[in-house]
Amino acid sequence: MAKKKINFTQIAMQVGGTAAGAVGTEIALNAVAPTMSPMMKGLIQIGAGGAAIAFDGGNTLVEGIGHGSIAAGALNLARNFNLLGGGVSGIGADDDTITVDSDWSIDGDNDAMTGDNDAVTGTI
């Protein structure tokens, strides 16, 4: 069986282009439109990445830039729709305490429910 020759130059161009596309589109959009929503950023990045790939002319670096731009755009869209597991600000839990905000919680260890003058009904 013949050994497959690895083209390290092509791999470096692809990896470098991908990193440049991801970081570069973030930097460019933050410079041009710093208040743009993550959804709009994501859509622009995905469109720009697709265009780069479509018109790359076989250039590995440009193709990598397109892939990086698409990846950054997908990440921005995931942030926009809160799909990254960050949850909702102010809500959290561990194995025995649920905190809804800074002044209301349920503590399973002490079988207690606390809040600022919040009416509590039911049992724990």
Helix content: 40-55%
Question: What is the H/E string?
Answer: HHHEEEE
Termini separation (Å)? 68 Å
What is the number of independent domains?
2
Tell me the radius of gyration.
24 Å
Structure description:
The longest helix has 25 residues, at 8-32. The protein starts with 7 loop residues before the first helix and ends in a 9-residue tail after the last strand. The protein has a 4-stranded antiparallel β-sheet, with no helix packed on it. Strand 2 (97-101) and strand 3 (104-107) form a beta hairpin. The mean pLDDT is 80. It contains 3 helices and 4 strands, in the order H-H-H-E-E-E-E. It has helices spanning 8-32, 38-54, 60-80; strands at 92-93, 97-101, 104-107, 112-115. With 124 residues, the protein is α+β, with helices and mostly antiparallel strands. It is elongated, with a radius of gyration of 24 Å. The protein folds into 2 domains: 9-80, no CATH class; 88-119. Helices cover 51% and strands 12% of the residues.
Task: Give the gist of this structure.
The protein has about 120 residues and is an alpha+beta fold.
Topology:
Layout: H1 8-32, H2 38-54, H3 60-80, E1 92-93, E2 97-101, E3 104-107, E4 112-115
Antiparallel strand pairs: 1-2, 2-3, 3-4
Keywords summarizing the entry:
124 residues; alpha+beta; 2 domains; 4-stranded antiparallel β-sheet; 3 helices; 4 strands; 51% helix; elongated
